[in-house]
């Protein structure tokens, strides 16, 4: 299934995308696409519905983040060997873990707002893993049982705030609108191998990122097991698993986002996002 959330910001309704690309309203069957409703039993019930019997939604309806009420938005840094090489960093011995604040989450096609004073806001197409089953100290062999599905994430990052302002990466990773999620949450039955997915990102039609999840260093079962040593993972948590090469910081010379530009990005089988870059307005 391709699950989604549609409607005005803060008032999204649950839905799914049918085989013909029509959005269908799931409101009569589930209150939201969020943690309490991402267990395998609930997903099985939704998968058994006939999409043709669900109300159709207008094609131009806004899509919200594909997961609601996210508890933790966890980022993994330098998790692609070719991306680490382009930044001049060594592949880490253990995963680099950082937070993206949940207030950063927005819809897949919502505007990305440059923070006031930002000079180095960058892009990162990433594979998001959505947790559907709670756990701690999860065995790696059982980790995939905890996955509700996958989605596209744009891990927007302000590099000066992240790398030049001292302290942790978090201040450059969690600005408002720095976490577009979606368009859909794709359940595992539709993703044969999440470690063999083409990933790409364009700015104003120029393709900067053109990679694959196959160059991921720490793979999804290990990441879930590893993170669960340090925190319990809860349904609705999102893990953004790293980016392939082609980020703005890695260009020669570096290239960063400016107001008026458009980002377009996608992952094989998981859909596309498209965001306009806008300046933060005083007020």
Task: Write a compact overview of the structure shown.
The protein has 283 residues and is mainly beta.
Order the strands across the largest sheet as they lie in space: 4-3-2-1-14
Category by helix and strand content: mainly beta
What fraction strand?
A: 25-35%
Q: Name the poorly predicted regions.
A: none
Count of DSSP-assigned helices: 5
User: How is the biggest beta sheet arranged?
Assistant: 5 strands, antiparallel
Global geometry: globular
Total beta strands: 19
Helix content: 10-25%
Quick check: average pLDDT? Answer: 96
| Strand/helix succession | EEEHEEHEEEEEEEHHEEEEHEEE
Q: How large, in whole angstroms, is the Cα Rg?
A: 18 Å
Head-to-tail CA distance between termini: 41 Å
Family: Belongs to the FAH family.
GO molecular function: hydrolase activity
Protein name: Fumarylacetoacetate hydrolase family protein
Keywords: Hydrolase, Metal-binding
């Amino acid at each position: 299934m391709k699950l989604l959330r549609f409607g005005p910001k803060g008032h999204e309704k649950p839905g799914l995308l049918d085989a013909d690309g029509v959005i269908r309203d799931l409101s009569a069957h589930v209150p939201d696409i969020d943690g309490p409703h991402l267990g395998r039993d609930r997903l099985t019930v939704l998968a058994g519905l006939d999409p043709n019997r669900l109300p159709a939604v207008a094609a131009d309806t806004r899509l919200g983040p594909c997961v609601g009420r996210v508890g933790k938005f966890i980022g993994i840094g330098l998790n692609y060997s070719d991306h680490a090489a382009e930044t001049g960093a060594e592949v880490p011995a253990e995963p680099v873990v950082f937070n993206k604040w949940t207030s950063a989450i927005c819809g897949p096609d919502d505007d990305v707002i440059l923070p006031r004073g930002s000079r180095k806001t960058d892009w990162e197409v990433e594979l998001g893993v959505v947790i559907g089953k709670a756990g701690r100290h999860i065995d790696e062999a059982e980790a995939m049982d905890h996955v509700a599905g996958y989605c596209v994430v744009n891990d927007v990052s302000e590099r000066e705030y992240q790398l030049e302002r001292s302290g942790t990466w978090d201040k450059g990773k969690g600005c408002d609108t720095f976490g577009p999620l979606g368009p859909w949450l794709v359940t595992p039955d539709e993703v044969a191998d999440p470690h063999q997915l083409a990933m790409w990102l364009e700015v104003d039609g120029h393709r900067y990122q053109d990679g694959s999840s196959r160059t991921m260093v720490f793979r999804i079962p290990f990441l879930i097991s590893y993170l669960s040593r340090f925190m319990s993972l809860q349904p609705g948590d999102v893990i953004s698993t790293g980016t392939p090469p082609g980020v703005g910081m890695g260009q020669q010379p570096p290239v960063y986002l400016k107001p008026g530009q458009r980002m377009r990005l996608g992952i094989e089988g998981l859909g596309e996002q498209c965001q306009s870059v806008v300046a933060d307005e005083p007020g």
